[in-house]
Amino acid sequence: MTFVAEALSLTPAAAKRxxxxxxxSKAFVRHPFFKDVLEALRLGRKFGEYEEGxxxxxxxxxLEVVRGxxxxxxxxxxxxxxxxxxxxxxxxxxxxxxxxxxxxRFGERLYAITRGGFICPYxxxxxxxxxxxxxxxxxxxxxxxxxxxxxESPFVPKDVYGIKxxxxxxFDIRDKRTNEALPVKEKEKLSEEYGFKIAPILAxxxxxxxxxxxxxxIEDLGRKGKEGIVIKDPKMKRSPIKYTTSEANCxxxxxxxxxxxxxxxxxxxxxxxREGFQAFELDDDDAFERRCMRIGRAILEAIVESIREVSxxxxxxxxxxxxxxxxxxxxxxxxxxxxMGVNAEFSEPVEDGDxxxxxxxxxxxxxxxxxxxxxxxxxxx
Amino acid sequence: MTFVAEALSLTPAAAKRxxxxxxxSKAFVRHPFFKDVLEALRLGRKFGEYEEGxxxxxxxxxLEVVRGxxxxxxxxxxxxxxxxxxxxxxxxxxxxxxxxxxxxRFGERLYAITRGGFICPYxxxxxxxxxxxxxxxxxxxxxxxxxxxxxESPFVPKDVYGIKxxxxxxFDIRDKRTNEALPVKEKEKLSEEYGFKIAPILAxxxxxxxxxxxxxxIEDLGRKGKEGIVIKDPKMKRSPIKYTTSEANCxxxxxxxxxxxxxxxxxxxxxxxREGFQAFELDDDDAFERRCMRIGRAILEAIVESIREVSxxxxxxxxxxxxxxxxxxxxxxxxxxxxMGVNAEFSEPVEDGDxxxxxxxxxxxxxxxxxxxxxxxxxxx
Lengths: 381, 381
What we know:
Two copies of one chain form a homodimer. By secondary structure, the first copy, chain A, is an alpha+beta fold. Chain A is 38% helix and 26% strand. In chain A, strands 5-13-12-6-11 form a five-stranded mixed beta sheet. In chain A, helix 8 packs antiparallel against helix 9 (265-282) and helix 10 packs across helix 12 (365-375). The radius of gyration of chain A is 22 Å and the shape is globular. The interface between A and B is large, with 52 and 51 residues.
């Protein structure tokens, strides 16, 4: 706690408030795999200027603050929203569908921090294999903000990117202490220099025509099952804005209704409202019909699938294929997941070349129990 | 307050708890139209055995307690739910789509109490015209539990029943003090004797076949745009259970998403989950396709309609046609609605034979403001 107050330069009063509000919690599992880190805490909520997910660490080389990735606000209509928020040129960058990771270097090694501010063993293992750490020697103040994407994702497995394992796509390079982002061109240049993959840059257009171009871009991404775009000021002085495809909204709805006992109603509601505004702005009659069917099917098929499984005596779970190069990291990941409060089971690891494949099951106990209760003839409410 | 403690025979400790929990609130607007009532309070929540919506009144003839209408639990599947909860014969009664009213006599006049325990001036005026009050002289301990149904409904206007104005359909006759319900046959007999309309009794079947019969009944009601059924023990010793048609669920969804700023997410969520269980139990592939389209369209059309109206500079409101036989009652109703916290406007009354037609507008300010905010190019979250 005292090292946090020191790292964040808090006044004694602010330090006291931080403690009283119980915002801080442990950010990692102590282990030789994380040997550069002596202590690490995360902010569970925004505190002053510090974003939720900010990590404060005492490392072998001193105190480190890694700012939380800022919340990106969402446009529900393209027009006049883009025009209202930007001036001059804007960049459309693909918003890839994975999980947000900040990669930093502490001491001798790389560390991958998830959105909530946890140092993730699974992601860290892959970052150390895939990311050239000489970048951090040359730029010790920077962090790589990446989407971790692919089939072997413990959080958001997707096969639309053709990535069988997992990979990192840089979308921002930021000062880890101030959260200031490099201009898009500099991010591109540095990423090229160090061989990082980046989230695809789809277009650069003048703000006056941006909503027109965005329509085509979104339609195209939707057809390919991609998630959406992030609209950026090339200089990164104005906050980016995100906008998603109908297919992504419906995929979220499927997921939320498949596990309806676990997922929040606000999550479902917000996706439905997004579809309403997109239909209003973009749809002719045919597109609207297709959207109604898409959204109805996304919701109902998901619920019915879960009911059917429980009726067949199965439990409802989400299932992810993972790959570990070191079985110690698997054990560490199990402990990490347990501390995050996830109800998980793991298959026995199966050797596959230089690594081990493990299935990670997230049990959806609330959904399973609710359906089971109803199917036994009990009443609702 | 003291009269409530006396009427409910509360111990001093219970009376104190009732007061501290702030469960009681005013149940009527004092007015000569309600001259038999000196004071009246309602329970905003369940308290001990007393249901939410229980009314306690000091009348010209003494203290009266009118029990709240009990919550009827819902079946999400027909099988095995019906079989589990009943024995022997069950009755399927139509669940009409209006609003729940308890009609009682205090002193010289009839009073209509809505679900929440308010004495409603609009409904009371109609009850006094349509209900034969000799019933209450012969049975002073009973109340009529009715669905108030028709086009001229201030709460749930529907045209599917062919009722241009408003009418009452008795579904239960209960002891107003104990809430004990008469057996279905006795309700029918008394209703016939006094000329009351009743909610249609659709079938009486043995519990072993009830789920099969219910499927046909529900399908037929759905085709006609009706709401659903209440499944009853003929003796009314076991609690009734309700089950609704897909059309009613979708109509609820339309309503909720048209006014998405006002309606709760739980309201939307519960209707969607009902559809999921119904699809699982009843649908073949074709019916499932139609259900997906029905639910998708119900939701999206409603949202887009509201967005379109705001984009045209209109405000979002729900609009009901009402009829008053006495303009004093209109004024009383305006005050009643104001006290219920409804943001309402009324048209000027227009004479129509022996009565006045008035349009009642419920302004949906939150929906209007949210849409307007987004359409101006502002960001979500």
